[in-house]
């Protein structure tokens, strides 16, 4: 019984040592280390590796190797594949592989549940493998050291169940202490790394003992004379199967190292620094090489020395047979560690997935549970997880009972093929933006169903005593549905057969449906979040991983992306100006710059978003899915809003510009008004001055002679008339300008207007000795206009001509010409003429006064402005043609009033009228 | 006490009235219709007082006044203007006018102002 | 092309070389039970030797790049 107690004590000590290591790991945070990370990856090497590889080698030679060559090859691609997965996980706060795939496809609950179920179903055989290994190794050790297990105490009789329950307890104690799963389990990682060291050491010890203790090195072990015919067969490649199977197994193990839930947990979720990958790239394959180095020697030694023993346990039985109980105990512990490491990580991982991705989403949708309103969910979460762990282990035990006699490696490969189904959705998800939820769900489901039908189902049937015809003849005798020969395919290896069918279908369905259907907006956002994770987190790159303060360049790029180059530069210049410093001078952004950038960003994307963006840069805390969605939604809302705002502000700008113009115009008008008032005042005061002066003179000088009295009275009368005229003109102008003038419209013959006007002032021409010529056509079309107003214009032009024409040899010509559409009247004098620059000025109120050379002319200075208003009112124009010294010719042109031609009239005829 | 008065105004009627008033007061009067002619005339005569209209074409009253003062001439100058704005009055006095009379003026005021300036010396 | 892309391309090349070395037809060349090196069947030696070579290759590649970086 002494040996039995030793075995039990050692087993308990192993468990305790794991707790101790985990405790240290959590206290000292030793897991943030490239070597620990690399060793923890060796959770890949389970009891399958520790015991099963030798068993596999004993029957297929190098057939065990592809499972390690695949990971070796994938390790080379760690910086491409794993790094991207790690980055995505950190950026999106992913908690499991189910969460990863679900997040990528729009945080689909359905997808999360599906992946969880697949992972559980796929992993259960694998866990049962560990149960079997632990149970068997215990039995082998016990029976060799103590005696037949059946005569041992009762609790050991059903080793498998005991092991399952103990492991469940162990995993519960170990893995479900905190509810929060996003934190790194540094204790767990360190314990796994510790186990990795121990199992490698144990395997190397037994390898060295066998090779150099039992034999004299490799050459002796493989010596041709030692090998029987069977063993000689193992030297050939063909023992491992076909080259095709070999290649597929390498591929399969490549998928496994990436997508096994526990592998994902350790290599992606528990990764603390992307930099650790660069050590793991070579150190992990080296670990694999070392742990496999003695597989073939041990297998051959076993075959040669214990032809009847279970090859899976040569590692244990060889030392036992040679009375190396200590070494056997070491191996037993190594195997125990290999198995428990896997079981702990796998159950913790799966239980998290079951609670977070399967149970809780369902409970949350079940209002009666009131789960959403509970303030503290962690007790519930922990209970769910503990129950899940127990359930998984019981399931595994069930599978162990049903398929207990299958070799370790075969069971493991079934699990591999299951998780390989994640490959299309996951790899497509991080490299192909078009991949969508429908494609992922359908692909996964189809692959999973084919896998279940072609691998675990027949393995259960084979060994569970079900109808044997199912596998041999197909369900209901349907030949092409035979699980090992779908559609009559002739792939000999069931694993390869299943993998080819399931993965090809999976991939094709995924791609086809993705191409045929569309993504939701949320999915689309997530797809670019995943595929472009490096581009998107470029600014945060160094910060998030290496924990540096943000540099000026990072802030600059951030601003560029949100604001565009121009506004970003402006914003940075603002800061330079405000703080009186130069961006060139600093590398690390000072807090004031960070604050400034945040404020500027807030103006573009809203303060909440800006804060999240900046905070994520500063604290390494990356964005969660919901934050990202919120950010996106807020941003697009703000964007739409700012677009509207921009449009409004553009309109406002336009209005402002118009207002400015109007204001300018108003100012101008105001100035003109005050000028006008000033002019009017002046023009009114001038005649008033004369009137008042002469009135006073007349009243104070009663002795004036009659002639003088008459002269003065005449001046008073004349100036009074001038005053009246001026007032009338001002009123007239203001009426015309304000649109209040009355227009008496009639059919007007312009010839008569010219003649009448000329007649009115003819005497003035005669008095001044001005020669006149009147050139009028015999008849012109009539106009629709105010006759008196046209006479007013004519009189104004004629009196101007009288005023300005040459004093000595004055000559004025008046002509009327008609074109098809217009009548033009021109009044030309031979006076001093008008400078071109003044040609417009004279039409402004009172302006003529300033621009003549011969003293102040008679008139109010309002004649031309009024005339121009009148002509323009009738749709014509009034202008002057002149050259200094050559006289001036005032012309006005009026459109001929045309009747609308009757519809039946030929346009040509109408034209010729 | 016969003094020489120069009247500069572009309004003939106002010139007539001022001439009448000045002659009646016993002064000798010369009159021109614009600033340019006034400056030209001042080359040859030396009046005691100038009645100077402000608003004239080409060379206005301000300009005439400035030129006279620029030559160091101390001749009395009375500005006449139909605008009568405070700023204009200030400006006129600043450039050397002795008095400023707003049109329409009271004949008595003009005569009194002229008398006062002529007896000041 | 930046340093990272260059690195990734080279890694992909190493990966493909490794994949080729571990597979048919190269592996078939050494599938000769009669041939032994150091008393060990050639197929075994070949696989483990290529494996070790690949690890060493990645080791030197990584160290060269990290020095560069």
- Give me the secondary-structure category of chain A: mainly alpha
What is the typical, i.e. mean, pLDDT of chain C? 84
Helix content of chain C: over 70%
- For the biggest β-sheet of chain C, the strand order reads 1-2
CATH class descriptor name of the largest domain in chain A: Mainly Alpha
Q: What count of structural domains of chain C?
A: 1
Number of helices of chain A: 38
Largest sheet of chain C: 2 strands, antiparallel
Q: Per CATH, what is the topology of the largest domain in chain A?
A: Sodium/glucose cotransporter
Determine the strand fraction of chain A and express it as a percent band: under 5%
Relative strand content of chain C? 5-15%
User: How many strand elements of chain C?
Assistant: 2
Protein chains sharing the most extensive interface: A-C, 35 and 34 residues
Number of strands of chain A: 7
Alpha-carbon distance between the two ends of chain C: 15 Å
Q: Which structural class best describes the helix and strand composition of chain C?
A: mainly alpha
Structure description:
- The complex is a heterotrimer of chains A (913), B (121) and C (69).
- Helix content of chain A is 68%, strand content 5%.
- With 913 residues, chain A is mainly alpha-helical.
- Chain A folds into five domains: 2-413, Sodium/glucose cotransporter (Up-down Bundle); 421-532, no CATH class; 537-623, no CATH class; 654-735, Signal transduction histidine kinase, dimerisation/phosphotransfer (DHp) domain (Helix Hairpins), CATH 1.10.287.130; 744-895, Heat Shock Protein 90.
- In chain A, the strands form two sheets. In chain A, strands 2-4-5-7-6 form a five-stranded mixed β-sheet. Chain A has a two-stranded antiparallel sheet with strand order 1-3.
- The model of chain A is unreliable at 538-548, 619-626, 848-858 and 900-913 (pLDDT under 50).
- Chain B has 121 residues and is α/β, with parallel strands linked by helices.
- Chain B has one domain: Response regulator (Rossmann fold).
- Chain B is 45% helix and 21% strand.
- Chain B contains five helices and five strands; from the N terminus they run E-H-E-H-E-H-E-H-E-H.
- In chain B, 45% of the residues are buried.
- Chain C has 69 residues and is mainly alpha-helical.
- Chain C is 72% helix and 6% strand.
- The radius of gyration of chain C is 16 Å and the shape is elongated.
- The mean pLDDT of chain C is 84.
- The chains are: A mainly alpha (913), B alpha/beta (121), C mainly alpha (69).
- At the A-C interface, helix 4, helix 11, helix 13 and helix 15 of A face helix 1, strand 2 and helix 3 of C.
